[in-house]
Amino acid sequence: MSITQNENGTWLVDIQPEGRGGKRFRKTLPTKGEAKRWEATIKAKVIKTPEWQPDRKDTRRLSELLEIWHNHHGKTLKAEHNTYGRLKLIAERLGDPIAQNINTELFSGYRQNRLDEGITPNGVNREHQYFRAVFNELIRSGHWKKKNPIEGMRLFKIDERELNYLTEGQIIELTEQLKLSKSKDVLLVACVCLATGARWREASGLHKRHVRNNCISFTDTKSGKSRTVPIPASLSVELLNHKPESEGALFGECYKAFLRGLKKTTIQLQTGQATHVLRHSFASHFMMNGGNILSLQKMLGHQSLTMTMRYAHLSPEHLEEARILSPYAKFLI
User: Fold this and answer.
1) What is the rounded average pLDDT of the residues 107-112?
2) Residue 327: what pLDDT?
3) Which of 17, 59, 91, 294 lies at 20 to 30 Å from 114 by C-alpha?
4) pTM score, two decimals?
5) Is 66 left (phi over 0), alpha (psi -120 to 50) or beta?
6) Secondary structure (3-state) at 207
7) What architecture does CATH give domain 168-322?
8) Catalytic residues, which ones?
């Protein structure tokens, strides 16, 4: 019964207007008439303005939401399996909580545990970004009606790493060493990186069809967007004449050959920069030789100019301004 009389003569209203699983409303009133009127008022409010009543409790666990995200968005990503795998590990480490119970306090504790395990702040930031992006996408697609549970939670501040680049002498030393490699591909891949600023994977994955009119078109890029970079005619000829019997991939696996060649030089790099130093070298020399920052952005394929601005301080104009506009130049010379 939705309305029952208590032993003391009062009347109890106990109703669930939306049925089992919906919000339950209870109230004790002095008369049966008042009880019926209150019951009718509550039902009318729920029917006319459903948003008036509190939301139903969402009992879905994090793993369920990740599966929804994967089915509706994750499958479209280039790094689908890697990203989904990382997210499932995050859910497992959190204990696969009910998603509605996730908050900044819970995730802050998770981040600290990851740091205690030896994960770098940069690595923890990447997990943070993956997690935040999942809820943002679920909200956009209508599969999550509440706010992002870690909305407003800041990433760890990371000191900007020094960008190593090769000097002219080091470039000569490296290429001379690569000429001695047993790999027939490693030197040419390195030259493509130095000539275009391409990532090693982009350069080593080239086919002959990507080389046209003294330009290289990169299609399988990190951002998923194609870009075309002009190259010297001599490099274009060398690429087109490489493996003349094949119209397929220009190069085979030669990453390890590059590492072996680099190790035999006197070049000292920060951990993790290996082949990426070629990309930094292209960008750095481009700016030092008077290149335009917007042109560099397009050639590197950066979605944001902020990333490219890391090289702006190397431009001749920037260096000259520092030389002539400093207080030393004005007062002490």
Assistant:
1) 95
2) 77
3) 59
4) 0.66
5) alpha
6) strand
7) Orthogonal Bundle (1.10)
8) 199, 222, 276, 279, 302, 311
